[in-house]
Amino acid sequence: MMDSTTGVLHPYWPRDLLIPTYVANDRSMSEILAFLFSVSGVFLLVTWLITGQKGTTGRLGTWRRLAVCWFAVCGFIHGVIEGWFSLYYDIIPGDQSFLSQLWKEYSKGDSRYVIADNFTVCMETVTAWLWGPFSFWAVFAFLTNKPYRFVLQLIISLGQLYGAVLYFYTEHRDGYAHSELGHPIYFWFYFVFMNVLWIIIPLVLIVDAWRQLSAAQTHTDNTKSHKSKRN
Question: Domain EXPERA, which positions (predicted)?
């Protein structure tokens, strides 16, 4: 698409978006997605194998192991992928580093990333520097059976859910102007599917953490009540 003001070609919406420093990717969509999903898959597989080793199987059931795998993948995506955006958002349109090209590809589903939208920069920076390290901390906490593991799960999941809701809601208020509405890949896969996961899964983990922490508090209350009656 030719920008009528600057003469710069770009594939983003709205069509009159000004991106004077834009340089087209020289990596294909398949290369970029293959990298993203293969590395995420490695994190998932390695974490699954670690949680299944002797000494942890008795403590971690299948669903708990999957939850730990989720946090490992989140650590990679938040810390590395989104961390890159938080550091280099201002040069991404013209940069040809692999992760910059990844963001230029994703921006076909949400051009706010290629114009350094204020909300997007702030939201991704918080996500990268808080929920990235916290996600790896959660993996460690579950592997070592730390008593605060479900507190971490609750905090991270609430943060992810809040960010994702704001992400969708701000774009809704903009009338979905930053993507080709209804496009099967850019809108439905990039914008909707790849982000709605951070609503559905955190919701499940919030409920799980709520139940676990409530059960622990109930046990503590019952123990105190039993001791007071004995005294």
Answer: 63-206
Amino acid identity of residue 187, one-letter, is F
pTM for the model: 0.89
How far is it, in rounded angstroms, from Cα 174 to Cα 186?
Answer: 17
Q: What is the DSSP letter of 186?
A: I
Decide: residue 47, CB within 10 A, 0-12 exposed, 13-18 middle, 19+ buried.
buried
Contact yes or no for 158/206 (Cβ under 8 A): yes
- CA end-to-end span of the chain: 80
Give the pair of three-digit tokens for residue 61.
């059931």
Answer yes or no: is pLDDT of 197 > 90.
yes
Burial of 54 (0-12, 13-18, 19+ CB in 10 A): exposed
Residue 147's alpha-carbon distances to 44, 85, 219, in angstroms, are 24, 33, 14
Tens digits of residue pLDDT in 153-178: 999 999 999 999 999 999 999 999 99
Is the separation of the CB atoms in 177 and 14 below 8 Å? yes
